[in-house]
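Recall the central idea of this unit: under ordinary conditions, the amino acid sequence of a chain determines the structure it adopts. In this exercise we apply that idea directly, starting from the sequence alone.
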Amino acid sequence: MSAGRLARIRDEVVICRACPRLVAWREEVATEKVARFADQTYWGRPVPGFGDPAARVIVVGLAPAAHGGNRTGRIFTGDRSGDFLFASLHRTDFANQARSVGPDDGLTLTGAYVSAVNRCAPPANRPTPEERDRCLPFLVREIEALQDLRVGVALGAYAWDGLLRAFAAGGDRLRPKPRFGHGAEARVGHRTLVGAFHPSQQNTFTGTLTPAMLDAVFDRARILAFG
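Accordingly, the structure predicted from this sequence is:
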């Protein structure tokens, strides 16, 4: 049942054109490309979530990267943030391999589902509030479809806010709003929200986020989700 619902959401995500600014940007990037990927055909469309339909943990980021998910068609795939993320998911037994380069590379997630608040690559990684709100129902529906879901891991403050909004839309509103932080936890209904610094190069190159720090978040998520 969950797999069918997720497939229907995916089919709707990939044809969405609700945000003109984001449509123009993602398609411009897909046409102009960058030199290192000049020989590749970019996806250039909204990027759906993916993972285990029986997931107990959902991992949520901000949006696809212009030359990552917007190129490959899979969220957090084909860029350095994704390399850092999937290596951690592999070390913590949520992924069968440590790297993802494309949707057909053999990566399988077990117990986890990866998604984002916004499904189109935004200019300067900054969706507007209106663009967030138009896209958020997809995340709400994914959460509803993942019937075994127990934990939401928010990669960054934007995802933390997005997950809180998605949980609230499903009837689990938390007041006052809990503050984001790496390792922060908040009980929201029957689920737990866990914060992690985003695996952006800005954080990983400076040591703000280390592999051990991200592994600790996913190890904690596993305990919360599976006991």
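Strands lie at 50-51, 57-61, 112-116, 151-155, 185-188, 191-196.
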